[in-house]
Design a protein that fits this description.
Layout: E1 19-27, E2 39-43, H1 51-60, H2 67-86, E3 91-93, E4 97-105, H3 118-121, E5 122-131, H4 141-147, E6 148-163, E7 166-175
Parallel strand pairs: 1-6
Antiparallel strand pairs: 1-2, 3-4, 4-5, 6-7
Length: 183
């Protein structure tokens, strides 16, 4: 996957500007659902910003630190987070949230504690993010919605194609013409 760099021409003051989140409108194709055929919003995903791009953004938005210093600190932070999460400890990043390790168990579990086998019963270890912060900094889902401008961009339909003897559904994006961002 390709990662994009931050463009210095797009300097933003996160405290005062609302970012536009582009949405795709996708039909529910589950015939067993009560919502079959209805449309739902999904974030239109673009290429993720890489570490260098994030550090360039921080450097260009009012910090005295250069990109390489910011990148060094972020890399050390990443290493520390992995270290503590892999030892079962959560990490609280004030005004941002808490990262906690969680366990995914095999469906059905073990019949008894004696029969529980870590190798067989634990499917994976995941990282859960729990947002938090003061009222003005909180980044829960409803607070994030208030910080964004949502705009529909595409209606998504699916076309069935056959390739190598296998049927596949591929998304077809049709642009939606709007008057502008929806508050």
């Amino acid at each position: 996957m390709k990662y994009l760099h931050f463009s210095k021409e797009r300097k933003l003051n996160v405290a005062t500007s609302k970012q536009v989140v582009e949405l795709d409108l996708v039909p529910n194709n589950n015939e067993k659902s009560d919502s079959f055929g209805k449309f739902f919003a999904r974030i239109h995903h673009t290429e993720p910003l890489n570490l260098r791009g994030l550090c360039e953004y921080i450097e260009s938005n009012g910090t005295p630190f250069t990109r390489d210093i910011v990148e060094g600190v972020v890399t050390r932070l990443r290493n520390a987070i992995v270290f503590f999460l892999s030892s079962g400890r959560g990490i609280k990043l004030d005004s941002l949230g808490t990262l906690v390790p969680t366990i995914e168990n095999k469906t059905g579990g073990a019949d008894s504690a004696r029969e529980f086998n870590v190798t067989e019963n634990v499917v994976g270890v995941h990282i859960r993010f729990i947002p938090e912060g003061e009222e003005l900094d909180r980044i829960t889902s409803r607070q994030m919605k208030a910080k964004c401008t949502l705009r529909t961009t595409y209606e998504v339909s699916f076309k069935t194609i056959t390739h190598g003897g296998k049927s596949m559904q591929i998304p077809v994006f049709t642009p939606i013409i709007e008057q502008g961002p929806q508050p």
